[in-house]
Amino acid sequence: MDAPVIDLLQLYPRDMNIYGDWGNVLVLRKRLQLRGYDVRLHEYNPGDEFPGQVDLIVGGGGQDSGQNKIQADLHALGGRLKELADDGVPMLAICGLYQLFGNFFKTHTGDVIKGIGLLNVDTVGGPTRMIGNTVLDSSEFGTVIGYENHSGQTFLKEGVQPFGTVTKGEGNNGQDGTEGARYRNVVASYLHGSLLPKNPAVADFLVRHAALRRHGSFNDVRLDVPYEAEARESSAARPR
């Protein structure tokens, strides 16, 4: 019997893939494979043909120059991505892509990079950089651990929930204690590091909903990953 297939798409890996964000793709693929799924990995860069079947979407961070490079293409793709999000496709958007999934990013120089409005959030360039090890408390995922490095200040609007509440670090804007954003099965965050190797609960949320949407079931076997707990404890204990 053939293994069930999951189509995993990495958005803009050429321009939006810094601070270890590629590791998120590797974790999702591996955790699916360990549960018996056949993972078809796709990459999408500006000008590519968007795959006909997509079950799970991951995108990373980038500099302002990278955001400018993908802006026009992302706008053309925005309607399709919003339809997929509304239909329950799980997505992980990190840092720069998180900002562009929102309404706009106004840089510190006053330039405005328009987003696609998939998330009802606004971002403005701040005067200081928020950088360092970060820990969140999430009602859905428990303790979330990562590393932030951004000067953009993001503010959540109506219909969007935070990914978590900051217990160490600055979060979305250094003011309201929130970090990241949640909409349906979309998870958006400033946390690099990569995020998913240290946060298997988030990874399993994404793969579970990808499998349920595609196949109607999920092989939810517990994975025995050596040193997973130790890695989380070590990361959480690191100074800011």
Automatic annotation (TrEMBL):
GO molecular function: carbon-nitrogen ligase activity on lipid II; glutaminase activity; transferase activity
PROSITE patterns membership: GATASE_COBBQ
Keyword Acetylation: no
Catalytic activity: beta-D-GlcNAc-(1->4)-Mur2Ac(oyl-L-Ala-gamma-D-Glu-L-Lys-D-Ala-D-Ala)-di-trans,octa-cis-undecaprenyl diphosphate + L-glutamine + ATP + H2O = beta-D-GlcNAc-(1->4)-Mur2Ac(oyl-L-Ala-D-isoglutaminyl-L-Lys-D-Ala-D-Ala)-di-trans,octa-cis-undecaprenyl diphosphate + L-glutamate + ADP + phosphate + H(+); L-glutamine + H2O = L-glutamate + NH4(+)
Pathway in which this enzyme or protein is active: Cell wall biogenesis; peptidoglycan biosynthesis
Keywords, alphabetical: Cell shape, Cell wall biogenesis/degradation, Glutamine amidotransferase, Hydrolase, Ligase, Peptidoglycan synthesis, Transferase
Residue stretches making up the CobB/CobQ-like glutamine amidotransferase domain: 11-199
GO biological process per UniProt: cell wall organization; cobalamin biosynthetic process; peptidoglycan biosynthetic process; regulation of cell shape
Keyword Ribosomal protein recorded: no
EC numbers: 6.3.5.13, 3.5.1.2
Residues holding substrate: R129
InterPro entries assigned to the protein according to its UniProt record, in alphabetical order: Class_I_gatase-like, CobQ_GATase1, GATase_3, Lipid_II_synth_GatD
Domain of life: Bacteria
Pfam families found in the cross-reference section: GATase_3
Assigned protein family: Belongs to the CobB/CobQ family. GatD subfamily.
PANTHER family: DETHIOBIOTIN SYNTHETASE, LIPID II ISOGLUTAMINYL SYNTHASE (GLUTAMINE-HYDROLYZING) SUBUNIT GATD
Function: The lipid II isoglutaminyl synthase complex catalyzes the formation of alpha-D-isoglutamine in the cell wall lipid II stem peptide. The GatD subunit catalyzes the hydrolysis of glutamine to glutamate and ammonia. The resulting ammonia molecule is channeled to the active site of MurT.
The name this protein goes by in its record: Lipid II isoglutaminyl synthase (glutamine-hydrolyzing) subunit GatD
Organism in which the protein naturally occurs: Arthrobacter crystallopoietes BAB-32
